[in-house]
Design a protein that fits this description.
Blueprint (H helix, E strand, L loop, with lengths): L1 E4 L3 H18 L4 E4 L6 H14 L7 E4 L1 E3 L10 H10 L9 E2 L8 H14 L5 E4 L21 E4 L2 H7 L12 E4 L2 H5 L3 E7 L4 H9 L17 E6 L5
Parallel strand pairs: 1-10, 2-3, 2-6, 3-5, 6-9, 9-10
Antiparallel strand pairs: 4-8, 7-8
This protein binds 2-phosphoglycolic acid.
């Protein structure tokens, strides 16, 4: 695990965007795994800025998102589909048919999970996966207790996760109770992982991620077993 310290959120976001841009240049057919949430937001702005200025080309790039809420439609402003459109897909030349997000409105959610996992496998695998991390150690929506061998599955969200995400809703009750998420096994198959961690509230999670015990109680700890993980942090731990 390579830890890259950054002065602040701006610097971290810029560096993460530059990393993605470099990978897209090296491989125009890149399979990119993407995350939502507050942490990668500025990184997406940098990607859009770069696209406008330098015309980085996404026409053959395929993007696979980690997760989506169950029961939230694409046009709902809290859907991750909407987030991706607003923050990235609506501003670069990626083809709609090359963007993949689990469908939380699917009639049969189990079938949707199987199909999503199949798409990941058929793609040849994620070349670069971007991750955030929850205070409870979740990556994607793999909450504590998720088996390490899980593929894409339906998850009941932890109350702490619903509370953390309630900032985007009017009340915590409005936050969906379930989601579809790529599993820990799906994530671990990625060739390269870039995890971003920002904010004082994530300092403990960072510690457990980088030097804690590998345990399903802290799902992100499994990343210690991955051969190519970069953790970009801006926690101000050494200031
Ligand atoms: P955040 O979410 O970037 O909004 O903190 C990260 C996560 O919960 O995985």
């Amino acid at each position: 695990m390579l830890i890259i310290e950054n002065q602040n959120y701006e610097a971290m976001s810029k560096k993460a965007a530059e990393h993605i841009i470099e990978r897209v240049k090296q491989n125009p057919f890149l399979n990119l795994g993407l995350a939502t949430g507050g942490t990668p937001q500025r990184m997406y702005e940098y990607l859009v800025e770069d696209y406008r200025k330098n015309g980085s080309d996404y026409q053959n790039v395929k993007c696979y998102n980690l997760d989506e809420y169950v029961g939230v439609s694409k046009d709902n402003k809290n859907s991750y589909y909407h987030y991706m459109k607003k923050n990235l897909y609506g501003h670069i030349n990626i083809k709609e048919e090359n963007t993949f997000i689990p469908n939380g409105m699917a009639k049969c959610l189990e079938h949707e999970c199987r199909e999503y996992e199949e798409k990941l496998t058929l793609s040849g695998g994620i070349d670069l996966q971007i991750l955030g991390i929850g205070e409870n150690g979740h990556i994607g929506f793999n909450e504590p207790g998720t088996p390490f061998n899980a593929s894409t599955h339906i998850v009941q969200l932890d109350s702490s996760t619903r509370k953390a995400n309630s900032r985007y809703f009017s009340t915590v009750e409005e936050v969906p109770t379930h989601a579809i998420t790529m599993g820990l096994h799906s994530i671990m198959k990625s060739k390269e992982i870039l995890l971003l961690v920002s904010g004082e509230n994530k300092a403990e999670a960072f510690k457990q991620l980088t030097s804690g015990k590998i345990t399903t109680d802290f799902p992100a700890s499994i990343l210690q077993n991955h051969k190519n993980v970069k953790v970009m942090e801006c926690l101000g731990l050494n200031e």
